[in-house]
Design a protein that fits this description.
α3 runs parallel beside α18, α11 packs across α18 and α12 packs across α17. The chain is globular. It contains 18 helices and six strands. By secondary structure, it is mainly alpha-helical. The N and C termini lie far apart (61 Å). The strands form two sheets. Strands 1-2-3 form a three-stranded antiparallel beta sheet. A three-stranded antiparallel beta sheet has the order 4-5-6. The structure holds s-citryldethia Coenzyme A. S-citryldethia Coenzyme A binds next to α17. S-citryldethia Coenzyme A (SDX) binds next to α17.
Length: 429
């Protein structure tokens, strides 16, 4: 046995093997802990617990490093496209020209939805949150392909992957168009992924619509940056649901719901709402920072802090630069960007944030760009989900192919009542 960790308990020594990752991370494998010692571990929020070994994404929280299949996010944001990055994450390597053309072809020719899905949108109340709609419709796709959901059939998994990536933009655009009473659009097969989504979102049947290439490029970069992030909350949800051998549509639907939370992907909407509130109440940035520091106040500086990044979030740096480029190109002043810059300036010099290692995360500046591209605020988490979809798929697929595949079933320590008898109603106080 290589390097080990020794545990002494009740006078006995137990040894557990150390597992080392290709980038130097180390863990000790406790899978035999309970059978050897009768003990389990307890780690609410999984601060020190690894759920799996994975070859997809590597984060170094101290160096602020993010690699997709070994390639730095900065290089992919500059040189790749979202469709190519999706292929890289799912299949492990950058595609050849032919592989990329075939992949793009599948995504283009699976982007339409079954016409009856349009009826779903009539059933929702006025202006429903698009995350609720998107997750519900994604989950319902399983009813249209019930004979192609075998999670051990490579061909059925492949066509499900194509359908999900191809249809999510259409599903998302439908939820927006329905909310503003406009006709539900059809995809345009002549356009690339980001441009097609922009056109479905903002065109109407009444006049021609030209996609702004700068806007489409900015969206494509944002989708790349959000594409995966190892075992975050929503990805862990996708894996746990998938571990019951549940189909990919349902697993991704669970991931969308998990992402919606304001502590996770819902933060990009919460950041803009926070910046807007500061702007509408006189721009009192210092007061906002003070509220975030007050332990009696549940308010948090949205878009700040991260479980892994304790130095800086590399994605935030790329997005901040992109936000400046977009705003400068549009020649408009964006007061919310000014407020965000002032917030960052104050918070990153404040001992509370420095000591707790709280820096801007991926959600802090992304909303500034989404707003500049005219996306409604409640669509921001949906844009995050569109970006994260290839990561969810890659992680779910890696789980299904894992030679040590097991259903996820954490243990617990019970702190409730000890055994006691039932008390008949008439004898209760
Ligand atoms: C995403 O995991 C991922 O990779 C996620 C993600 C991805 O790509 O999938 O990167 C995407 O979800 C980014 C995070 C978006 N969420 C927010 O911006 C919401 C605001 N941030 C937080 O609530 C918080 O920082 C988390 C949820 C991001 C991280 O929470 P942790 O790691 O559980 O840390 P914690 O809540 O225990 O905070 C540690 C301390 C606490 O103070 P003490 O109790 O120790 O005194 O820092 C404080 C917190 O109160 N703190 C904040 C704060 N974030 C943490 N105080 C003020 N403002 C904040 N934003």
């Amino acid at each position: 046995m290589g390097e080990t960790v020794k545990l002494e308990y009740q006078g006995k020594i137990y040894e557990f093997p150390v597992v080392e990752g290709t980038c130097g991370e180390k863990a000790f494998d406790i899978s035999t802990l309970r059978s050897q010692t009768g003990l389990i571990t307890l780690d609410p929020g999984f601060l020190s617990t690894g759920a799996c070994e994975s070859q997809i994404t590597f984060l170094d929280g101290d160096k602020g490093e993010l690699l997709y299949r070994g390639i730095p996010i900065e290089q992919l944001a500059e040189k790749s496209t979202f469709v190519e990055t999706a292929y890289l994450l799912i299949y492990g390597n950058l595609p050849s020209k032919k592989e990329l053309e075939d992949f793009q072809h599948h995504l283009t020719y699976h982007s339409m939805l079954h016409e009856s899905i349009k009826n779903f949108y009539d059933g929702f109340p006025e202006n429903p949150h698009p995350m609720a709609v998107t997750s519900a419709v994604v989950g319902s796709l399983a009813t249209f392909y019930e004979n192609q959901l075998n999670v051990r059939d490579e061909r059925e998994i492949e066509i499900t992957i194509h359908r999900l990536i191809a249809k999510l933009p259409t599903i998302a655009a439908y939820s927006y168009k329905k909310s503003i009473g406009q006709p539900l659009p059809y995809p345009d097969n002549s356009l690339d992924y980001a441009s097609n989504f922009m056109k479905m979102m903002f065109s109407t049947p009444c006049e021609p619509y030209e996609v702004d290439p700068l806007a489409a490029k900015a969206l494509d970069v944002l989708l790349i940056i959000h594409a995966d992030h190892e075992q975050n909350c929503s990805t862990s949800s996708v894996r746990l649901v998938g571990s019951s051998m549940c189909n990919l549509f349902a697993s991704v639907s669970a991931g969308i719901y998990a992402l919606w939370g304001p502590l996770h992907g819902g933060a990009n909407q919460a950041v803009i709402e926070m910046l807007q509130e500061i702007n509408d109440t006189g721009g009192k940035v210092k007061e906002c920072v003070a509220r975030a520091k007050d332990s009696e106040n549940p308010f948090r500086l949205m878009g700040f802090g991260h479980r892994v990044y304790k130095n800086f979030d590399p994605r935030s740096r790329i997005i901040k630069k992109l936000a400046h480029q977009i705003i400068d190109k549009m020649g408009t002043k964006e007061p919310l960007l000014e407020i965000a810059l002032e917030l960052e300036e104050i918070a990153t010099k404040d001992s509370y944030f420095v000591e707790k290692k709280l820096y801007p995360n991926v959600d802090f500046y992304s909303g500034i760009i989404y707003k500049a591209l005219n996306f409604p605020v409640n669509m921001f988490p949906v844009l995050f989900a569109m970006g994260r979809l290839p990561g969810w798929i890659a992680q779910w697929k890696e789980l299904q192919e894992d030679k040590n595949f097991k259903i996820g079933r954490p243990r617990q320590i019970y702190q409730g009542e000890k055994t006691r008898d039932y008390i008949p109603l008439e004898k209760r106080s």
